[in-house]
Amino acid sequence: MNNSGILYIAEAERIYALDVNSGDTLWETEVGISDMWNPNLYVTDNSLIAMNLEEMTVYSLENGEKLFEETGLYYDLAADGDMFYTLANVSSGVDYELQIISYHETDGKQEELTEPIEIDMPYEDQNITIDRKNNFFYVHVENGVLAYDKDSYKLIWATATGEIEKRDATDDDFTYDVRAVYGDNNIYTFTEALSNTRGEGENFFSILDATTGEVKEHYSLGNGDAVGPFLDEETGKVFVYYYDTFNDDVGMAYILDAE
């Protein structure tokens, strides 16, 4: 990842910081990481966090010194200043229970902020994410979005196709994948119908109020293939690419201004 002209790279045996202008290696970790570890990298004001589903290690941005490490089942984190907030599976059994936990970049674990909430078993672990935006923590699960107040840590609203803890509890024969991006005032979602028979079911693009979760606009995209939504921060555009393989292979892009 690139942060303020410094590129942080995780390889099989090391994590190192590279000056993108000079190409100089500024520091590298003395203790390598396993080639099976495959961490995601995040930064706070002064720390680099390397995290995967099983463990998390925090390093100094200045010199790569290891500050602390934790073990757990981590899906994602949201960084804010000198704090960061992990989204962890805290179930002690075979279930999946999500909880937001706060950490200081040098002092380590602070508080368990939210009550654990049960979700259905993820198909892909990387689809379980957390974002801190506006006055909320937005937690994305594979079939919906949950919004927590960033100060009280109370669950304000949740929306899902099916149920958060049982994604196949729908009114039809399909289960659904929901993907989301977050604007200042709106949340943009693409909902894909999943079926054993390709071409069945409808896919939807929706615009939700970011504060209340209320659906403001809702469009059917048919039963083709789509990717997105994507939010381009530089242009302020949200877009979805849609490919109608059942209607003369028509490809379309839906583009609108992000709000």
UniProtKB/TrEMBL annotation:
<dbReference type="InterPro" id="IPR015943">
    <property type="entry name" value="WD40/YVTN_repeat-like_dom_sf"/>
</dbReference>
<dbReference type="InterPro" id="IPR011047">
    <property type="entry name" value="Quinoprotein_ADH-like_sf"/>
</dbReference>
<protein>
    <recommendedName>
        <fullName>PQQ-like domain-containing protein</fullName>
    </recommendedName>
</protein>
